[in-house]
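Input chain follows. Return structure tokens only.
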Amino acid sequence: MGFAQVLSRAQSGLAAPQVAVEVHLGSGLPTFSIVGLPAAAVKESRERVRAALATCGFELPAGRITVNLAPADLPKEGGRYDLPVAIGILLASGQIEPGFDPARTEFYGELGLTGELKPVPGLLLAALHARQAGHAVVVPQSNVAETLPAGAPVMALGSLNDLTEEGIGLQHCREEAAGMPARPAAAVEGGAAGVPDLADVRGQLLAKRALVIAAAGGHSLLFVGPPGSGKTMLAQRLPGLLPGLDPRQVLEVAAIRAVSHPAGASTDGEGMRLRAASHTPPFRAPHHTASAHAIVGGGTAVQPGEVSLAHHGVLFLDELPEFDRRVLESLREPLESGRVSVVRANQRAEYPAAFLLVAAMNPCPCGRHGLQKPPCRCQPEQVQRYRGRISGPLLDRIDLRMELTPVPPAALLERDVPAADKLDSATAREMVQQARLRQLQRQGCLNARLGPAETTARCRPEAAGARLLAKTAAERGLSARAQHRALRVARSIADLEGREEVTRADVALALALRQDGQAP
């Protein structure tokens, strides 16, 4: 007869609920049962633990072995419970001494048949929750780099054989839990290393200004123009205009990446990439054939989608009308709320999705609409049908809509760069950073995240600007949402200029960059 309890954690979206691995040794016919809503990979833990214990010189106790993963109604997936099950059996049978505090130490790891500990996905998230609870974590050697940035005390095991080595086993883990100071979040350099520079773009002055405004206030942006007009080139430079992520944001982005792997996927090398993660905001550019599950999230394990992987960064949708209609409509909720809730038959997960949307599209199927040489070959019905693939409600949620025309060949070949073209990413990023600082000091969030009441209070223009907005709204038939979004853009323009007052010129520019009521 014997009993032991070892702590671990499950994964549910970006939550990591505590799991108590309870092991009971009883008399009777030899059986090995795992209960508590285990998935197939967890049930197979019996055979891995049995072989690993035997290979490492331990004994599997005779009689009934019952392992309960509490709470019983929480689904358990993956191989992360192998190590806590093995430790629980060894403690319950008295083969090792509890040289650690069971109430403050968590165990994770998949066992090989030789007793070797293999990496498991999503341990950064578990380590973050362990730090909040004041717990230490015991992880495979391959997961150490991933878990260190969380700041929890970490103990690495390479194999079950390490439990018997002097100074390495559970005694060392106890010292780690009791005396090791919490490590701060990984200190890595900020900046936008490797991101293309805005100075590479010739011409398109108004488009570059719109790019800076979008970065300053977190506003969504749509570029419309013929092939070769610079839509993709401009979009790829947007991450370089955003300020570097702070340590909290770095961990949020890294945690989403960590849980984006399917259960059981190898994480070899992923920990090192997470620890060395740049402060540069993420840039995601899914292909237009991506499914709704890939964009929003879902699947059997309810993984995060591209909108969540772009959290605190940029989501670029090139060839916007080529995306499936359901995919585009699924963007409406996260664009408004900054979060996405994924619900399946037996699972529900909520992920953050505060991304900056930048999209690009051609004006017609052939891409030459409005140009003289060569002329557009599309019929009016084709143009209308092509543009109609993007619904009005989605367009209503896009703050800035820019019409691009090709840059003249002479401007591309000029050796002396015009002064207007000399704005580089570093200078623009400094402008954006100062504008964002004003917004955070004034209201605690970016302008694009203001609610209706806050928009009225924080973005109220001067009298002339209010009259212009009212007149334009009546002429174009702007919705209340469109008017609020125009005011937020005007507020961002004023913040870039360092002004507290939103002027008529700010409102006029915001409306000019929106182009509501016109063909996109």
